[in-house]
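<instruction>
Derive structure tokens from the sequence

<record> Sequence and structure tokens follow
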Amino acid sequence: MLQSISKPDEFNARDSVWPDLRSSPIPSHQRFWEYEWVNHGSCSENLYSQPQYFALAIALKNQLNLLDVLRKIQIYPGNVYAIAHLNSSITTAIGKVPDLTCSYRQNQVQPYPGVMQLQEIAICYDQTGSRMINCPADKFVEYKKYKRSSACTRSGNRMAYFA
């Protein structure tokens, strides 16, 4: 369960640096933050409170500007890439294996029919948040609960659209 935040400014600060790109309207942030805590933060609850966890997560995000990393390895929004290429390029750039999440966007017009959309690039850290680690091959998120599918694999010739 997510601890309630009494000050709207705290949500606004989180939302400005870690937005929920999948949902609309914006007031659904409470569900988004609960999802992030349950699936990513709760394993460290013996070390960090929820506010401490989110502050650490944002600090780690700011340390590794993933959009800059993607630009440096010439991966740009609006293009289609082989998932194996995305995975190996990001792994080479950051020195650790990321976790890619893709899905077929049902009930939406797709720019490339039959091609998955890259939904998320997760970078994994140890429980303390002090060391980047390879993301586990087996998914740590229960996608069915949130009606998402993780169709990305670390190899093969499947393609994904980076929106």
Observations:
- Helices lie at 8-17, 29-41, 50-63, 66-72, 83-94.
- Residues 1 and 38 are 7 Å apart (CA to CA).
- The chain has a mean pLDDT of 76.
